[in-house]
Write a structure and sequence with these properties.
Blueprint lengths: L1 E2 L9 H7 L13 E10 L4 E8 L4 E10 L5 E6 L5 E3 L3 E2 L1 E6 L5 E8 L8 E10 L3 H10 L6 H67 L10
């Protein structure tokens, strides 16, 4: 069950449009950068898996966080397009994986809630695909116009990497904030519920004690025998 709370971050659209030609792959797979943010409900005892295409030579990043549910932990695994399990399953609240120079293909990302038999989990999944090699093409196109863009390209690449890292950190802290808020809400509900139960128990015990003490002092009307 997937709650679609996703966005695809696309920058340098004018440059990307020139790169999208006649191809059988989805249109977004040829863009220089793609970022996706999902919030997923995983039912108890279930496993949800997703596929993400990564261009050859691109940088792939994936992370997950358990926002709400049960013990606050789940399994997360990433399988390389070659079939190798590059990030094995571990029961934990969050995890991340990064491939700086991907060989290309579809990565297999799975979230496992099979150890939880009763509690569903709300999971945040964040993925980015960055194609830094596209900067070289961009630089060559500008050099054909007799422009010196070496410093400009280097600066923009540095800014792009910093922005990407900043977005990753923002997503991580946003997930932590949501997780902490849900934990506070659950703790508040827990305290209120048990407080009401204790009040009911105390009042019931008091009423029973008063009743039985009064019964001890009850005097029955008896007639004296001659």
């Amino acid at each position: 069950m997937l709650i679609l709370d996703s966005f695809i971050w696309l920058f340098f659209i004018c440059f990307a449009i020139s790169l999208v030609g006649t191809t059988t792959s989805p249109w977004y797979e040829d863009l220089p950068a793609v970022a996706m943010d999902y919030k997923v409900h995983v039912d108890p005892g279930k496993e949800d898996c997703y596929y993400q295409y990564v261009n050859p030579g691109a940088t792939f990043y994936a992370s997950f966080q358990v926002l709400r549910g049960g013990d606050g932990m789940a399994g997360f695994a990433v399988r390389h397009p070659s079939g190798q399990l590059v990030l094995p399953y571990q029961w934990r609240p969050n995890a991340e994986y990064q491939d700086q120079q991907s060989t290309g293909g579809y990565y297999h990302i799975c979230v496992d809630n099979q150890f939880s038999r009763f509690a569903d989990k709300l999971i945040n999944i964040y993925m980015t695909v960055i194609r830094y090699d596209q900067w070289e093409i961009y630089s060559k196109e500008l050099e054909e116009l007799n422009l010196s863009v070496e410093n400009f390209t280097t600066s923009i690449q540095s800014v792009e990497r910093d922005i990407n890292q900043m977005l990753q950190h923002q997503n991580h802290f946003r997930g932590m904030e949501t997780r902490h808020y849900n934990l506070l809400v659950d703790n508040n509900a827990y305290v209120l519920r048990w407080s009401l139960i204790q009040i009911v128990v105390i009042v019931s015990t008091t009423i029973m004690q008063v009743y039985f003490v009064r019964k001890l002092f009850d005097v029955k009307n008896t007639r004296p025998r001659a």
